């Protein structure tokens, strides 16, 4: 009693989180309280152990000690954090349904359900309209259908990670679509002169056409050629346009009334893809042939008493031209 009773309490080792309050109430009862001095952080230290020491006022003083173990319970005070703010993925446009594009990863320092993370796209898009689906547990993003480089070269997605306590974080996912050589070159004739007079001068433009390939890079680089032709040639005009020209060799309707031309365009892919276009050029007749008699000289023996009006000989001349150009009159 008195001076020999407990005089103070202390904590060993001292820490910044707890202190001891000791005193007497109005009714004379003594009390001792462990007081929290600053907020705890379970993510920094989940448990704390120290000794509580009571000291009396005797001489020499005597002490009593008890061990205090404090387990800090988790509250949902940490939101998920993505390993990256912006994820970049690349995928070939011909990758099949179910292919994995990339995996997003978020962590949460909380424990238990407060640290359980689920993933979803932050803006809901119907499965019929979206080319992507995300696994809510693993964060794995997969294709729901093949992509088309020619329709869209990049896709931007927003992914939300939500913990069990409702806290969330958002990251951006950019998917780059890589081109494959899935488009053949296309040829489009923009102007065409047919029929073509057979006396057209060399260099006459017969047709103007363009070529295009919706692929990119070497897959979209196109070269054009004309198959096996003696009368026509190609000449680049501008950009992706070509001119079909008459060669120096003259056309001859009497030898060929029309020409079947095959235009072939090839891209730079590996393997290359090709596109073809067929043009039929009809040759228009020019009056470039004179009538020709079946004989250069006719010798006719006629009796002197042949009646007037009698047919002495029939002369025949032909002209290979057509229409009026080939119609023969005699005089």
TrEMBL record:
InterPro entries for this protein: Cadherin-like_dom, Cadherin-like_sf, Cadherin_CS, Protocadherin/Cadherin-CA
Every Cadherin domain range: 9-82, 83-187, 188-293, 294-331
Entry keywords, A to Z: Calcium, Cell adhesion, Cell membrane, Glycoprotein, Membrane, Repeat, Signal, Transmembrane, Transmembrane helix
Pfam families named in the record: Cadherin (PF00028)
Major location category of this protein: membrane
GO terms for biological process, alphabetical: homophilic cell adhesion via plasma membrane adhesion molecules
Record's bilayer topology term: Single-pass type I membrane protein
Cellular localisation: Cell membrane
GO molecular function terms attached to this record: calcium ion binding
A GO CC term attached to the entry: plasma membrane
Name of the protein this chain belongs to: PCDBF protein
């Amino acid at each position: 009693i008195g001076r020999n009773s407990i005089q103070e309490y202390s904590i060993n080792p001292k820490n910044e989180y707890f202190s001891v309050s000791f005193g007497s109430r109005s009714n004379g009862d003594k009390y001792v309280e462990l007081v929290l001095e600053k907020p705890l952080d379970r993510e920094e230290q989940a448990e704390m152990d120290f000794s509580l020491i009571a000291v009396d006022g005797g001489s020499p003083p005597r002490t009593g000690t008890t061990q205090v173990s404090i387990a800090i319970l988790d509250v949902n005070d940490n939101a998920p954090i993505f390993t990256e703010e912006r994820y970049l993925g690349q995928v070939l446009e011909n990758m099949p349904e179910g292919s994995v594009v990339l995996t997003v990863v978020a962590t949460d320092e909380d424990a238990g359900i407060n640290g359980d993370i689920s993933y979803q796209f932050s803006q809901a898009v119907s499965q019929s309209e979206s080319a992507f689906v995300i696994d809510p547990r693993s964060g794995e993003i997969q294709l729901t259908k093949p992509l088309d480089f020619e329709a869209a070269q990049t896709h931007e997605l927003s992914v939300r990670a939500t913990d069990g306590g409702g806290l969330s974080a958002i990251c951006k996912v950019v998917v780059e679509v890589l081109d494959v050589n899935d488009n053949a070159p296309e040829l489009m004739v923009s102007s065409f002169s047919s029929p073509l007079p057979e006396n057209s001068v060399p260099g006459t433009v017969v047709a103007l056409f363009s070529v295009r390939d919706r692929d990119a890079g070497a897959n979209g680089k196109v070269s054009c050629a004309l198959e096996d032709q003696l009368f026509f040639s190609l000449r680049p005009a501008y950009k992706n346009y070509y001119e079909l020209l008459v060669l120096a060799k003259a056309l001859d309707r009497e030898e060929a009334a029309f020409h079947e031309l095959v235009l072939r365009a090839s891209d730079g892919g590996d393997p290359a893809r090709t596109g073809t276009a067929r043009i039929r050029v009809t040759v228009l007749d020019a009056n470039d042939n004179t009538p020709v008699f079946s004989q250069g000289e006719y010798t006719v023996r006629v009796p002197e008493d042949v009646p007037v009006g009698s047919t002495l000989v029939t002369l025949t001349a032909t002209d290979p031209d057509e229409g009026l150009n080939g119609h023969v009159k005699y005089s």
